[in-house]
Amino acid sequence: MICTVTLNPSLDYTVTLERLQPGGLNRADAETVRPGGKGLNVARMLDRLGQPVQALAFAAGDTGRMLAAQLAEEGLPAELLWAGGGRTRINVKILADSETEINGRGPALGPAEMEQLAGRLADRKAGDWVVLAGSLPAGLPADTYAQLLAPLAARGVRAVVDAEGEVLLHALTARPFLVKPNRPELEGLVGRSLRSRQDILAAARVLQRKGASNVLVSLGKEGAMLLTENGEDWFCPAPEGEMRNSVGAGDSMVAGFLAGWLTTGRWEDALRLGVAAGSATAFSSGIAAPDRVWALYDTVRI
Question: Structurally, how many domains does the chain consist of?
Answer without folding.
Answer: 2
